[in-house]
Write a structure and sequence with these properties.
binds fe (ii) ion; single chain; binds ligand L6N33NVT; 12 helices; alpha+beta
Length: 425
Amino acid sequence: MGDKMNRRAFLGMTAAGAAGVVIGDLLGKAQKVIPTASNKQLGTATASAANETISFYGAHQTGVVTPAQNFANVAAFDVTTQDVKELKELLQLWTEMAASLMEGKPLAAEPQEGKFPPLDTGEQMGLDTGKLTITFAVGASLFEKDGVDRFGLRSRKPAGLTEMPIFHKDSLQDQLTHGDIVIQACADDPIVCFHAIRNFSKAARGVAHLRWQQTGQLGVKSQGTKRNLFGFKDGTANPDLQDEQFMKNNVWVEAGDGASWFAGGTYMVVRRIHMRIETWDQQPFSDQEEIIGRQKVSGAPMDGHGEFDKPNFADDSKGEVTALDSHIRLSNPRTGENSERERILRRGYNFMDNLDNVGRINAGLLFVCFNRNIQTQFESIQKRLTNPKLPDKMLSYTDTTGGGYFAVLPGVPSKGSYLGQSLFT
Ligand SMILES: C=CC1=C(C)c2cc3[nH]c(cc4nc(cc5[nH]c(cc1n2)c(C)c5CCC(=O)O)C(CCC(=O)O)=C4C)c(C)c3C=C
Ligand SMILES: [Fe+2]
């Protein structure tokens, strides 16, 4: 009850958002900041000269073509309300919150009047926003669950948005898989990411709750392409983030692709891939390179010298230089016209979650990729990697335990609009 009233109060306060007032401004004016010793000393996040912020507003959401920040927190929610009005209100509230957080503004610096918990939990105060991006996406279950058209949205589901299938050798755990809504928070500070997810969850109480969440990180001061936990450079063959033509062709959904409300969105694939670190660490150096299909130190292809040299598979049809079942050769055989059309934008993070229940290191890759068509891009690649007749050599060293398929909502063009607005109109 308290939470519901709290959210209503928040929404009431932000009703002015529709008239173009952002939460941070509004709360900044409506609620005075107590000049405690700590915030006097630290100031608000926006006060820092080094504070780099990214605008929430635009035709596309951020966190897709944004260069990967050092930390990520990806969280999936189950929507518990059956009332579409409450779902819409939650998306409106999250819109205002996300815009404010990305600007480095606190949601509120002060307890509310009366006996309510503070609107902002506060652990980010004094921290740089760290280029925080917050990306919202929805799963197939939001449109239809167990055959039920829960919110009258069944007919709006983009055709390519299915529940993530179980691929060969997958070990999906229900509590780490799927979800009605996913929020990806990325920033150069892990507490900033955590703070965002925590406050979205807090604001959702009674309407949606966390189903799973996964943190991830990259090397903080590494030079060049970051490495995964097998010790290889990961991202070398990724498209150039400045390549707008590639993003238009392979990442952003267009109105003609199907559901017109989804234009400007993209499909997000998440795979929580546990890596059998202890087994991998016993493999000879040369075997590790053969499995990946690249040189470990430089990241160069097996037949090249520099990281960005192009492998020449055409002159190696028997796989004597780059094994036919190496990871890069199966991921991108570089034959036929499909190769370019199939290309995805990868944006993964390493995860390190202590030990599992039998004492093995519980670490791996939080694989995230964005693509315009899951079936002809991600799935086409994934099916080659998991083809039982010639599986990716790397498959013996990984177990995929969670993730899902999600539709990243189109961007919010300006203040006063909200996430998913086109879905409801
Ligand atoms: C289905 C898509 C992919 C999954 C799942 C996947 C998992 C995965 N990958 C690595 C490590 C590397 N991957 C590399 C390249 C690469 N991987 C995919 C796709 C998937 N990977 C693609 C499309 C490519 C690019 C292929 C190309 O065009 O050459 C590399 C090489 C360096 C690079 O280009 O990034 C590494 C290393 C791990 C560890 C992993 C799961 C745990
Ligand atoms: Fe890969």
